[in-house]
């Protein structure tokens, strides 16, 4: 019985993995574009673009990104010329095209970014600064 409970917890832990977001670009001198995946926050200066990718056992499949307030920030899908490592059932399954997005700060303020992939969603606090 103890093994069954431990096994069930292990399956739940694997099933509850959120997509991982990773910054791909750096801001111009004197501007900000900081993606903190541990705190789930993004700080972005007005007029600055931040490219990031999404991973979930390899590149996210069927991913989408939305923001609560589109007046503050623009979010677009990006087509990256880089491959990511892909896993299937925990085993190496070759390379696959990375899944990417671009955020562009428009107006100062706070909103939320939501990235959904494979029926799971991750939410980031997003602040647009001067």
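^ Assign residues to that structure.
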């Amino acid at each position: 019985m103890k093994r069954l409970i431990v096994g069930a917890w292990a399956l739940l832990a694997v099933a509850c993995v959120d997509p991982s977001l990773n910054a791909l670009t750096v801001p111009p001198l004197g501007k900000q574009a900081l993606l903190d995946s541990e705190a789930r926050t993004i700080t972005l200066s007005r007029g600055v673009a931040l490219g990031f990718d999404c991973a979930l056992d390899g590149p996210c499949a069927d991913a989408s990104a939305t923001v609560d307030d589109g007046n503050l920030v623009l979010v677009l899908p990006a087509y990256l010329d880089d491959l990511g490592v892909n896993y299937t059932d925990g085993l190496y399954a070759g390379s696959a095209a990375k899944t990417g997005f671009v955020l562009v700060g428009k107006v100062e303020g706070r909103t939320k970014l939501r990235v959904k992939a494979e029926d799971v969603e991750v939410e980031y606090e997003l602040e647009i600064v001067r």
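The two ends are 57 Å apart (CA to CA).
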